[in-house]
Amino acid sequence: MNGMFAGKLLAVALFLAGTTPVFAQSVTETVKDSLRATPQDKKTFSLVHLRLEEMNSADRDLVESRARDIQQSALIYGYDLASGNWQVEQGVCPQLPDTLLLHYLERYPNGTQSLFTVLIPRTSGRVRVIPVLHRNAVPFLPSASNPSNYELFNSLVSPETAQKDSVAGGEWLSLGVCYAEMVGGKPNVPSDPSLDPATIKAPAPTVYKDSVTGQRSIRFPDRDAADVVKMWSISLDSKGRVIAASNEDTATYTARVVVPAVESARPRPPVAERAPNAIVNPPVSRSKITAMPPDPPSRIIANPPEPPVKIIPESRQE
């Protein structure tokens, strides 16, 4: 009995020795701490995107069955699906399991584009359209900072998911990216911006929780284009509900190396190899100094003699 008891104690001791104590999460967490399900070699985070032909049959059938509703809702905002060449792409958002999120994009020959988001409930309900771009023109209220879109997103995310995924330890980056996708974005978030010289000045994705008010903030950079980094900032209340959002474009960082000019060290060709009429080191013109001419010799002229005076006698003057 004593041997069995000692063996059990040894097994318990070995088990406890192999465990790691769990400490409380801090109020601030970066993406490198939170994306535990992300492969170690993955340097960016983004949602899964599927073209119409790549979607599963249930989702394709849903799009086909609500095609008329999609067309009518889009026409209200000035998008005509009956003309043009629209590209349809699904953004798979884990925080919206009951909603099918689609992006409709059309590119024009002059380089402009139109873009809007479609939200289709998987069970029942109305189709929602969020206008994003009209030939590169944004709505009066940009989609990212429109309070109506805050309310719409909050109505689509369950209270449990909003509370769980808006703090450190939850899928907060996925939650923030889902909002960005709903308002027309397609974030490509670098997990460590310092690894890319173009984004070296961008802050790392971070979630912050105020210990006093309980409000949260999700911030992350998005490599939106080759020369643009878009910074997303999403504020949430103590229950994980969106209360404000913004995105701002900043130019990517470009290092500029200034190389000082260096005189050519190539030796001069010998005299025999030079052209016969070549001028080598022409003499520097020197200024010629001309002496001032001497003054003409002065000539002294004597004063002329006084004219003779004639004296007339007084008798003749009378």
Question: Key terms for this structure?
Answer:
single chain, alpha+beta, 318 residues, 5-stranded antiparallel sheet
Strand order of the largest sheet: 1-9-10-11-12
> What's the number of extended β-strand segments?
12
Percent in helix:
10-25%
State which percent range the strand residues make up. Answer: 15-25%
Bulk shape:
elongated
Task: Give me the secondary-structure category.
Answer: alpha+beta
Summed up, the helix count is 8
Mean pLDDT: 80
Enumerate the spans where pLDDT stays under 50 for 5 or more consecutive residues: 4-27, 32-41
- Give the ordered list of helices and strands: HEHEEHHEEEEHHHEEEEEH
Cα Rg: 44 Å
Number of domains: 2
Major sheet size, sense and barrel closure: 5 strands, antiparallel
| Cα separation of the termini | 192 Å
Written account of the structure:
The structure is a single chain. By secondary structure, the chain is α+β, with helices and mostly antiparallel strands. It is 22% helix and 23% strand. It has a five-stranded antiparallel sheet with strand order 1-9-10-11-12. Strands 3-4-5-6-7 form a five-stranded antiparallel sheet. A two-stranded antiparallel sheet has the order 2-8. β11 and β12 (242-251) form a beta hairpin. It starts with a helix and ends with a helix.
Task: Present the secondary structure layout.
Elements: H1 2-17, E1 28-30, H2 31-34, E2 44-45, E3 48-51, H3 57-65, H4 67-76, E4 87-92, E5 99-107, E6 113-121, E7 128-133, H5 147-156, H6 159-164, H7 172-182, E8 189-190, E9 206-209, E10 216-225, E11 228-236, E12 242-251, H8 314-317
Antiparallel strand pairs: 1-9, 2-8, 3-4, 4-5, 5-6, 6-7, 9-10, 10-11, 11-12
